[in-house]
Amino acid sequence: MQDVGVPPGYRRQLYRDDAVVLRVQKLGESDRIITLLTRHHGRLRAVARGVRRTTSKFGARLEPFGHVDLQLAGSPEGVGSALHSVSQVEAIDLYGGTFLADYPRYTAASAIAETAERLTPIEREPSLRIFQLTLGALRALAAREHDSSLVLDAYLLRGMSYAGWAPALAECAVCGTPGRHGAFSVPAGGSVCPDCRPPGAAHPAPATLGLMSALTSGDWSVADAAEGPVRRECSGLVAAHLQWHLEKALRSLPLVDRRTGP
Amino acid sequence: MYEGAIQDLIDELGRLPGVGPKSAQRIAFHILSADPADVGRLATALRKVKELVRFCTTCYNVAESEQCRICRDPRRTEESICVVEEPKDVVAIERTGEFRGKYHVLGGAINPLEGIGPDNLRIRELLARLGTGAVKELILATDPNTEGEATATYLALMVKPMGIDVSRLASGLPVGGDLEYADEITLGRAFEGRRAV
Ligand SMILES: [Zn+2]
Ligand SMILES: [Zn+2]
């Protein structure tokens, strides 16, 4: 393995971790830059050499959305800004393959991966909960037990709670009065009571807020039973709430195919 | 940093895909020391490619007239269309000599993470070509990686209800690779052994 990208004076170490592949980008003639969400070392980018050659056995394991076991070379403490490189990779579960036969699931997986990047803004800062949440969401998507749109919305809602900006659902976002209030305002932070309701607040169907709570708490019997219009309204509010809190809009979210997969 | 023209050249070269700062510098100094006639030919080629080459109005392959050479060829059947991501993939498949139909160049692959959805590719144009009824077979020859497979899945979803046979290149092309790196024999075999999807 060619030793590249290490600033002089820094020692290059080998270390192992398991990770979810979030993004794969072309680099030069035949290399790729892989964005990984690792279990113990947070999100990091690593270069994988030669993987675009069709003779590479590596390539298939480093496609998006796979759960892989890796040996990486670089400084695990992140000294310097040099890219780490992938020196070995073994597949644990290559979820990507299962999504490819199902376009809605593929687009949902893309939105999960892009959100995972945004929820881990600082490279190499360990974020075990986001790792577990992301791996769990991809696993659920691959298991095909629930509609892909619901799995995505559950991931976005829980990711927002980890980040500290979950929409208020069981109390007024402004005054904290408990109860399920009928109005919903993204700028105010979720459902709002009649006294606090700002102009322009939405009035979603009560079942929509019920679905949002069910997805947040993992009550799948309620979530799976939700009707189409309720699911669509929920997806709209979740997306609006997420975009409000992210500096830059997610590119993949508007491209999610919400038609019900097989 | 160098002064003026040489640094401008290094900067421009450095913006090319696959050219890092060191390569850009090496190429720039090579050009500086090269024979003026050679450099003149390079400059002319660069200018001409933008002046003369356009995209075929039927298949979006590169062309020097309204239509590309393949679309103009009367010996090639209208019944079969092979869908590829880029013009370089047309070249790769032409080398195998396995295909006697026409092409459709999408201009990339669906990649939601980069904000590329079906509307950013020449998919609407493909569906319009298929709508005429002349096409009986669609071969999906997008790259054997995640974006290429996802694009093939999307196209199959859209095209199958139109009653057209849709097939995908057979495996043998390792996942994660680029079509352009497959050798002729492997690609030819993948083409011959294409499977209905
Ligand atoms: Zn209130
Ligand atoms: Zn043409």
Automatic annotation (TrEMBL), chain A:
<dbReference type="InterPro" id="IPR012340">
    <property type="entry name" value="NA-bd_OB-fold"/>
</dbReference>
<dbReference type="InterPro" id="IPR003717">
    <property type="entry name" value="RecO"/>
</dbReference>
<dbReference type="GO" id="GO:0006302">
    <property type="term" value="P:double-strand break repair"/>
</dbReference>
<protein>
    <recommendedName>
        <fullName>DNA repair protein RecO</fullName>
    </recommendedName>
</protein>
<feature type="domain" description="DNA replication/recombination mediator RecO N-terminal">
    <location>
        <begin position="14"/>
        <end position="94"/>
    </location>
</feature>
<keyword id="KW-0234">DNA repair</keyword>
<dbReference type="InterPro" id="IPR022572">
    <property type="entry name" value="DNA_rep/recomb_RecO_N"/>
</dbReference>
<dbReference type="Pfam" id="PF02565">
    <property type="entry name" value="RecO_C"/>
</dbReference>
<dbReference type="GO" id="GO:0043590">
    <property type="term" value="C:bacterial nucleoid"/>
</dbReference>
<comment type="similarity">
    <text>Belongs to the RecO family.</text>
</comment>
<dbReference type="GO" id="GO:0006310">
    <property type="term" value="P:DNA recombination"/>
</dbReference>
<dbReference type="Pfam" id="PF11967">
    <property type="entry name" value="RecO_N"/>
</dbReference>
<dbReference type="InterPro" id="IPR037278">
    <property type="entry name" value="ARFGAP/RecO"/>
</dbReference>
<keyword id="KW-0233">DNA recombination</keyword>
<comment type="function">
    <text>Involved in DNA repair and RecF pathway recombination.</text>
</comment>
<keyword id="KW-0227">DNA damage</keyword>
<dbReference type="InterPro" id="IPR042242">
    <property type="entry name" value="RecO_C"/>
</dbReference>
Automatic annotation (TrEMBL), chain B:
<dbReference type="InterPro" id="IPR006171">
    <property type="entry name" value="TOPRIM_dom"/>
</dbReference>
<dbReference type="Pfam" id="PF21175">
    <property type="entry name" value="RecR_C"/>
</dbReference>
<dbReference type="GO" id="GO:0003677">
    <property type="term" value="F:DNA binding"/>
</dbReference>
<comment type="function">
    <text>May play a role in DNA repair. It seems to be involved in an RecBC-independent recombinational process of DNA repair. It may act with RecF and RecO.</text>
</comment>
<dbReference type="InterPro" id="IPR015967">
    <property type="entry name" value="Rcmb_RecR_Znf"/>
</dbReference>
<feature type="zinc finger region" description="C4-type">
    <location>
        <begin position="56"/>
        <end position="71"/>
    </location>
</feature>
<keyword id="KW-0479">Metal-binding</keyword>
<dbReference type="InterPro" id="IPR000093">
    <property type="entry name" value="DNA_Rcmb_RecR"/>
</dbReference>
<dbReference type="Pfam" id="PF21176">
    <property type="entry name" value="RecR_HhH"/>
</dbReference>
<dbReference type="GO" id="GO:0006281">
    <property type="term" value="P:DNA repair"/>
</dbReference>
<keyword id="KW-0227">DNA damage</keyword>
<protein>
    <recommendedName>
        <fullName>Recombination protein RecR</fullName>
    </recommendedName>
</protein>
<dbReference type="InterPro" id="IPR034137">
    <property type="entry name" value="TOPRIM_RecR"/>
</dbReference>
<dbReference type="GO" id="GO:0008270">
    <property type="term" value="F:zinc ion binding"/>
</dbReference>
<comment type="similarity">
    <text>Belongs to the RecR family.</text>
</comment>
<keyword id="KW-0233">DNA recombination</keyword>
<keyword id="KW-0862">Zinc</keyword>
<dbReference type="Pfam" id="PF13662">
    <property type="entry name" value="Toprim_4"/>
</dbReference>
<dbReference type="Pfam" id="PF02132">
    <property type="entry name" value="RecR_ZnF"/>
</dbReference>
<dbReference type="InterPro" id="IPR023627">
    <property type="entry name" value="Rcmb_RecR"/>
</dbReference>
<dbReference type="GO" id="GO:0006310">
    <property type="term" value="P:DNA recombination"/>
</dbReference>
<keyword id="KW-0863">Zinc-finger</keyword>
